[in-house]
Amino acid sequence: MTHTRDKAGAMEERRGQRRTTDERWRTALTCIEPNKILVRGYPLDEVMGRLTFGEAIYLLLMGEVPSPALGRLMEAILVSFIDHGVTPPSTLAARNTATTGAALRACVASGILGFGRYHGGDIESCMQFLDTGLDLVRQGKTYRDAAHEIVQRAADAGEIPPGFGHRFHTRDPRAARLFQMALELEAEAEHIQMIRAVENALHEKPGKEATPVNIDGAIAAVCGDIGIPPAIANALFLISRVPGIAAHADEERVRQQPMRQIDPKDHIYDGPSERRLQERRK
Amino acid sequence: MTHTRDKAGAMEERRGQRRTTDERWRTALTCIEPNKILVRGYPLDEVMGRLTFGEAIYLLLMGEVPSPALGRLMEAILVSFIDHGVTPPSTLAARNTATTGAALRACVASGILGFGRYHGGDIESCMQFLDTGLDLVRQGKTYRDAAHEIVQRAADAGEIPPGFGHRFHTRDPRAARLFQMALELEAEAEHIQMIRAVENALHEKPGKEATPVNIDGAIAAVCGDIGIPPAIANALFLISRVPGIAAHADEERVRQQPMRQIDPKDHIYDGPSERRLQERRK
Amino acid sequence: MTHTRDKAGAMEERRGQRRTTDERWRTALTCIEPNKILVRGYPLDEVMGRLTFGEAIYLLLMGEVPSPALGRLMEAILVSFIDHGVTPPSTLAARNTATTGAALRACVASGILGFGRYHGGDIESCMQFLDTGLDLVRQGKTYRDAAHEIVQRAADAGEIPPGFGHRFHTRDPRAARLFQMALELEAEAEHIQMIRAVENALHEKPGKEATPVNIDGAIAAVCGDIGIPPAIANALFLISRVPGIAAHADEERVRQQPMRQIDPKDHIYDGPSERRLQERRK
Amino acid sequence: MTHTRDKAGAMEERRGQRRTTDERWRTALTCIEPNKILVRGYPLDEVMGRLTFGEAIYLLLMGEVPSPALGRLMEAILVSFIDHGVTPPSTLAARNTATTGAALRACVASGILGFGRYHGGDIESCMQFLDTGLDLVRQGKTYRDAAHEIVQRAADAGEIPPGFGHRFHTRDPRAARLFQMALELEAEAEHIQMIRAVENALHEKPGKEATPVNIDGAIAAVCGDIGIPPAIANALFLISRVPGIAAHADEERVRQQPMRQIDPKDHIYDGPSERRLQERRK
After folding, report:
1. CB-side exposure of A230: number of CA atoms within 13 Å?
2. What are the per-10-residue average pLDDT scores of chain C (282 residues)?
3. Which pTM does this prediction carry?
4. Would you call A202 exposed, middle or buried from its count of C-beta atoms within 10 A (0-12, 13-18, 19+)?
5. Of B119, C44, C46, D118, whose CB has the highest number of CB atoms within 10 Å?
6. Are D116 and A110 a contacting pair at CB < 8 A?
């Protein structure tokens, strides 16, 4: 169809008429010309060495170069998911693919496909959950009352609110760190206030063990406060998980026999003991 | 089988004997304990805000925190592939998946699978190509003679050496920028010397138009000189392509009608005109 | 966790106690023993040559050997989706993957991922749509009234009912054929009666062009009537699409140049002209 | 580019000139017209109910309706791989994807990606291996001498010939069945003769345990003898594995808790005991 319209357009042009609207399909991401690549308008060779990968990801997805504070939050968000050991199903899908001798790209694709409803989707759900609470605030409720109401709704549906609790961790160290950075970088706003209120509301529920905010929740709140929409937050999540999946696929290939049966519980960590970053890095 | 061995091990332990070797399978990437995530030994919450995403990727894949110079090269390498517009087949596979309403992870997986023999594999091939030349140098040949020999071998096989030439660009601006950074950061060594020699050898061939080094070749040479093995260079390539694929899948979802027929040649760029980074960024 | 329980179980066994429940995880599909493969209890070598692929698929997914009539419907359902030319986005994702020189498995995976919300999901949705109508019938409504009610609900939501209408065909020849077979094989029941009522209800709506039932709708109704649940119907759909995707990926590899730009509208069919099956086949 | 040529072509047509060659790209698989779908020339609605799925797959991939004997071999080949229990890595990749709540298509894609170098590639390799032997026969060697020579070459490379031996089975019942069918259907020719000679040559090697031909080898030999090229044999393999992968993904969803840790060795089969097909089926 486009094709037909195009020919018609070409004909009109030959007749000296002007097409009022260009009916080609449009993209605003990257302009390619001979010897020139403009990402959101910036020459890519100029971006190299001047923006970090995290800043360039923000530029590509959001359209503008981030402020230094936003850039630091982006890096922290991307780093926070870089790996979570051998037991996530996405990692195991990648390792089971790697043990067959498959190419790295097939292992990575297989791993990415393992972010289903129960695994990795909490950032988007939590952003929607927080927005429901913020709608109540905008209607005049206090943060405390709004939080109690949405927590109760989740409890009535038999659910833990998305962004809270963890299979392994009773206190997710990454969430604490991200909130601290948001505070220092003065990025805190209503979403973080809302998630704090929800955490308190969960705490106050009688006869329940604590389900503190996890890294999904922290990222959801921070992304909400810095204006990143849920779909882009989800893209950041996928981007951040790829290095870990690739690292496991590569380690499987290098250290293990092909075609092995992988029992996720039967492993041992033999990497370096706990160590600290050198001071200059802090 | 491991299972049986484990029970045997457990039995020995109860008998007060020690297992001489632990037969669990091993991983050196990330250690997960309650409320603690150690990536290559470093607490992940401490890495957040202290290493960039690019530096953390190097840490995860190579095992150590990169020097500042290595870190800057990593960022530049990762940025160099962040997007190449709508026409690469990997991007089109992702857009064709996105137009069906598929989840972002499915679009990204589909895009990654489009790095086949003819698309994206040149970094690894070029590293092997350069190593063949460097083997000749180690056997006593000059760089010039070694380069002429491997270029001739490629010509005899009817091939352009991997890492040279480009569908769109006669001079790849990203390659020039990466070599400049490697020079400034004093990371130049034998692989870059070899690729320069190959570029000269190609130049000297009579009756041929120039096929200058492209970004794959530049990354291959730089990775060779900073000690990144081919498989890890390939992992970096995959990681670096994911943001672009995700951005196109998201743009397809947001700006286009579902179930459209995508003609890659019938598009127009409507993003910002060429612009420059602010001085403070340089 | 299973592991810990298992060790405890092993210990009990050594103590001469019996485990009351086996806590291993369970599968009912296929039993593998040395030199023996039992699919749903049947030796696979005995199934070979005795059941067709379509019958064996039914056996594997549904647990029992189909009756001859059910077997014939299975074959027809699987055949009905075997290919739909070059323009479906799933096929284009596979071709865009194939043009990069990717392995066939990567092309097929990429194609399968292109069955998103708007492409290939209508069988499941239509089954749910028909069941909504049948619930109304069970509550005492006539088929006619139930059909009008659910058609109106779809119209109120601005939607065409799933399983009706087609981008290319005003009358889907595959749907007619499948209904005819269901009639001949005496497999017609309430779902087909319901979809007929819906088709009539759509027909009676004033000022609308006809949106006749398509092959998704026909399969949904037939699957409903022969007791195939929606998730299995969806599995049948995926299985039936793989040969077409593989055939296009292979044709792309054999007949086209690598790394081409694929315009879906710019193709021409150069295969055999229309021909008929020999009589003995009918 | 094609686009530009097309406009030029359109212009020529308007000028009353004829384009000597149509430069649109070509496909010979399926012709789509309003209300008509021709697969290799046959109306798809006519194929439904007249050809089985296996016969239609042959038609689509090979271009012609198979003879009844070829059709029966196709069905047997497709049935032979329909499932191999829970332990193949491809199945485990699919189950690890399914446990995350991912869509069936994502699970199937993930499973298909697990056919890497060491898993599922033996049909193509074995066809090439047999062809090497048949080249020697054509040069005047006996089958016996040719077999000994290619077996020795494999042994010198430290390899078991592709298509021989199995992780679980010392005698693959599917291979025996397929050879029996090829004999009964008079499809035996030089490839089966060659693989028999190889089996004997392996048998005669002193001090070695037997590595009998497996199902990959049997399919390779039969496909060779009925004129199916290696790439199409590989497509048949992928098609035949999809129902099993889908069945495991569905069983994982239905019978297991989400987000479980899947130990492939810790399972038990709880399906029907061994049973026989009814006589009418034989």
Report:
1. 14
2. 37 44 91 95 97 98 97 98 96 97 97 89 94 98 97 93 86 95 96 97 78 94 97 97 98 96 96 88 49
3. 0.92
4. buried
5. C44
6. no
